[in-house]
Every structure is written in C-alpha cells, then in structure tokens.
Amino acid sequence: MPIPRYKAPSRTAYDIVIVGGAVIGSSTAYWLSQALGSGASILVVERDSSYEFSSTALSTSAIRQQYSNPINVKISQFGIEVIRGFQERMAPFYKDEPAPDLGFKEHGYLYCCSPDGVKAARERVDLQRSFGAHTVFLEPGPLKDRFPWLNVEDLGGGSWGAREEGWFDSVGLMNGFRRAARASGVEYIDNAVTGLDIADGRVISVRLATGQTVACGTLVNAAGPRAQQVAAMAGLSIPVAPYKRYSFVFASANPIPGRMPNVIDLSGTFVRPEGELFLTGNTPQGDGPAGYDDFEMHHEEFDDYIWPALWHRIPSFDALKVQTSWTGHYEYNMLDHNGIVGFHPQVTNFMFANGFSGHGLQQSPAVGRAVSELIVHGAFQTLDLSPFCYERIDRNEPFLEEAVI
C-alpha cells in the first residue's frame, strides 16, 4: 500500500462529514452540494486519493436492469439516466475542458438460464418489463439464432437486455461527481478517520490520523469495503466485509462476430468484449471475507475455473491468452447482498451507505441522491429506498435479490 500523505482539514467543525470519497461518497457529496449550496459545510475524508485500491477504480463498471426486486430495477433506470446525461450534467463544472463522456457501451446483458430456472427467469423478465425495461426471454432455438457462437445445449433459454444495459467509465463517473462537489464548495482531504466520539446517541466529532478532531453534525459512512471499521468506531456492527474478485482481460484466437453482450454463464462466470479483447471474472472458489489490504492475485482461478466455463459456453474460446489481470474488493453484505442506506435508530446522525455487494457503482447515482434526501428533508423524495434500511440488519430480515453475480 502507498505511504499516506495526509492533509489536515481547514475547519474545526462541519455540518456533514463523509467517510470515503470514491463513487458512493462523491455522489453523496455532489447531491448534497446541489441541494444545500453554500448553506452547509461538507467534508469528505478519503484515505487514498489516488483511488488505486478503491472498489470504484477496480470495478468492471457495468449496469443492468435485470434484477428480481422492483427497487433495484428503478435504481438502475435512474443510473442509466445519469450516465447518458452525465456530460451535460457536468458541463457547468468543466469550464475550460470538455466534461467527461462515460463511453457507455450499450451492449446489454445475457443471463443464461438452466432448464429448471425458466419459470423464475420468465417471471423476472415480466417484472422488469412491467417497469419499462427492454428485457426479453429467448428459448434455446431463438437464443442460438441470435448468438450463433453460444452453446445452448444445456440451457433452458436466456434473458437478454437489448437496451439500457452495458458498461461505462467508472473512474469518469467518480471524478465527475467529485469535481462537481468540490466546485460547489465541498472540501476533500487526504486523511483517515481513526475514531468517532459519541454523546447522547449522536456522533459529535471525528478523529483523524493527523491528530485533529472535527465536530460533526451528520456522519455518512461511505467507506466501501471498510464500512464495518467505521461502524465499529460508533459501537455499531454491520455484516459488511471485503470479498476478493479477480478480473482477467484476455485475447482470443477466434473473434466473436456481431454485437456481443455481457454473458452471464450458469457457473457465474461472466465475459464481455473490450475492444478486440475480452474481460472475464467469476465468484472465486472458497469465497469469503478477505483482509482489507489483501489484493493478492490468484491466477489459477482463470486456468482452473474460468477458462473451462468459457470454453463450454462459447466453444470458439478454445485458444485464449491472458493479457492483464487485477484484484478488487466487493463491499459484500453477507446478510442479503443489498445495500444498507439510512440512519441508525440509536446513533441518530450516523448514516449508512454501505454493503452494495458489487452493485455500488451502478447504484451510486440513486444512492447518493437518496442519502442527500434523508439528510436534507428527513425522508426520501424520489425513489423509496426504505427496504435498504439498517433496521432489517438488526432484525436479521434479509431483503433478498435473486439476480446477484
């Protein structure tokens, strides 16, 4: 890990302190700054402003509407709206240069479905379409016609989102939110939160690695895979931990003709095109919590598990060569794989924005807006994210999502 070069804050008190400045923290800072203007002081504390090890920078940067819960479908639909209009939205904050184009590749997702899973897959497609998604279910014959390079012999079909799904520039999204927030008066510092002071059921101050203590009106936990570390500083606990995900970029001796979507195999392995190359990953063997600083690569995951799955599903992937690879962390919610969004009922100014389990990037526009609404208005104003409340964690009542990768 890099040696930190921390910076002290410019004030001794802030209305809002956000712990974590990657895409969730910066989206929250952006929406707050637009809602409050100069009427509030906002501090974002980011422990590594290079973002080298952030989940945002190491993400595979995709967005889909193929979920089993209506709220997740709606969250992604707003995310698509923001991604498509991001350049225009950010233009006021890029006076001397073009605002970022997120390079949205609208290739869609293709979820392979087992024969036993057809009924549930069709029900999910019907749900998604009822909210305006463009998902369709293709039986094996039409699926093979549409994607002739796909092995459909063991499939019951596949759900395909032909529009408003794909992948985009994750760092561009984060940097846009961050730049807009800073231009609107939000202060960012390179520093680390080392402790929280609690009195009368509230966070009253935040202690920093550089020795300062700053008073705090509202504390937002946007610390990604380190969310439980921050919660513990307030005497709280959430079932969120870093889970390692390995990404591999490979070349194939045989190209895939046509417009290839992001293919999700029955094995959980995914693959999509990246120019003339391909990006792939899976749920690793022995999946479980990792160390916060553990980014060690396991190259055998590709040879032993990913490549056999790819070759089975796409037979032309018989001659592959890995070009590059990296390890990232999911901020994994071990209860139900969905985010935790909202205030704690006892520590009443402690806001959670955690546990998105690989969906944080695509959900960041809606989550940042929702957190802002709770802080500014005391209630959700647009999308109702109350199913993501902390209370379900305390009650051990999962809010289940079937379509988890």
From TrEMBL:
Signal sequence, start to end: none
Record bears the keyword Glycoprotein: no
Any one GO CC term of the record: cytoplasm
Gene3D superfamilies from the UniProt entry: D-Amino Acid Oxidase, subunit A, domain 2, FAD/NAD(P)-binding domain
Key words of the record: Membrane, Oxidoreductase, Transmembrane, Transmembrane helix
Residues that span the membrane, as ranges: 12-32
This protein's record includes keyword Transmembrane: yes
GO BP term, pick one: mitochondrial respiratory chain complex I assembly
SUPFAM superfamilies named among the record's database cross-references: FAD/NAD(P)-binding domain
Ranges where the FAD dependent oxidoreductase domain occurs: 15-374
An example molecular function term from Gene Ontology annotations: oxidoreductase activity
The name this protein goes by in its record: FAD-binding oxidoreductase
Organism, scientific name: Mesorhizobium ciceri
Lineage of origin: Bacteria, Pseudomonadati, Pseudomonadota, Alphaproteobacteria, Hyphomicrobiales
